[in-house]
Amino acid sequence: MKRLFSRNETLVAVTLILLCLVIGLNNPTFFTLGNIFTLLRSSIVTGIFAMGVLIVLISGGIDVSFTAVGVFAMYSTVKLMLRFAPDAPIWVGFVVAAIIGLGLGLINAFFIAQFKLPTLIVTLGTLSMFHGFLLFAIGNQIIRDVPPSLTAFARSAILRIPQTRGTANLHPAVLLTLAIALVVWLLLKYTMLGRGIYALGGAPEAAERAGFNVTRIQYFIYGFVGLLSGIAGMTFGSLARQANPQDIVGMELNVIAAVVLGGAYLTGGRGTVIGTLLGVLLVVIANNSLILIGVPTVWQRVVIGVIILVGTGIPAVQERRAGKRSFGLAEV
Asked: Do the beta carbons of residue 230 and residue 97 sit within 8 Å?
């Protein structure tokens, strides 16, 4: 039991439950199916981005360009569909966006793996480069007349429950997020590649000595993050029913905060899918539901900042105490 409560996932889950109780007791609307489905819909894009960021953080890197990759893939795909295949099904859009995202992710991988440049510096540069190229060369106007398949996807639901006011709709993209989370969990837990990602975050030199091909792992990591970013971008554009080249960019801190809250270390080597999903829910609820208890919009970022400090500070203190105890036992 003590070990269970010392885990970061448990602390995040307890914080999430307490936050839900505080909001729900002050405003019962929070516990309605309509609001729950809305929160799940709001978690979709953040959740997909977070799965990619989780892998990067575990490997000891940091990527801040994923939002630029997402909006680049989304906007380019919509323009391509409108020009060449306006009646194409939605899966075609997702495949094209994923391929574009993969290509952009491999650009990050090239600079990081081949030139051994710091991941933060590379992705800061490509964040500006990708977004700037999108606005200058591809388009800077909002596209509201999107292909019909995007509109149909936005209106779809796997569950419709009549409410006193309107209908509560559960969007199928929730299943997409869960499917991606399952793939990442299987990758990290049961594959040699997953072990290599953890080893790379723990100690790159030791990982190389153990026989892991660090360059190939880095190409996979940033290519995979690009692919997920393309999917997330296309999901965002579909749900919004428009392609705005100014959207998505700016979400980086919220996504990274959700992953760090879930237990991933910025120094690498630690992180879980379950913790990340809990972190995403915590950030989404804090962003979308504090207004229900009268917290002004301008103060919501302050509250989120406090949650992040507390959520990341407690595990750090616990680890430091555990380290001191281990050191004391070693001396004895």
From this structure: yes
3-state secondary structure of 60: coil
Instruction: Give the pLDDT of residue 3.
Output: 62
Q: Please, what sign has the CA dihedral across residues 142, 97, 224, 38? A: positive
> Which residues constitute the domain of residue 156?
2-331
Q: How many CB atoms lie within 10 A of CB 152?
A: 13
Q: What is the pLDDT of residues 282-313, one digit of tens each?
A: 999 988 877 777 777 777 778 777 766 776 67
Residue 301 has a CB neighbour count (10 Å cut-off) of 13
pTM assigned to the model: 0.93
CATH number of 124's domain: 1.10.3470
Q: Which residues contact 123 (CB under 8 A, 6 or more apart)?
A: 62, 63, 64, 65, 66, 108
Cα 101 to Cα 235: distance, rounded to the nearest angstrom: 13
How far apart CA 278 and CA 286 sit, in angstroms, is 12
Q: Is 242 a residue whose pLDDT tops 90?
A: yes
As for how many domains the chain has, the answer is 1
pLDDT tens-place string over residues 140-158: 899 999 999 999 999 999 9
Where residue 279 falls (left for φ over 0; alpha for ψ -120 to 50; beta otherwise) is: alpha
Tokens for 177? Answer: 């997020």
Residue 311: what pLDDT?
Answer: 64
Look up residue 192 and give its amino acid: M
Please give the structure tokens belonging to residue 301.
């970022």
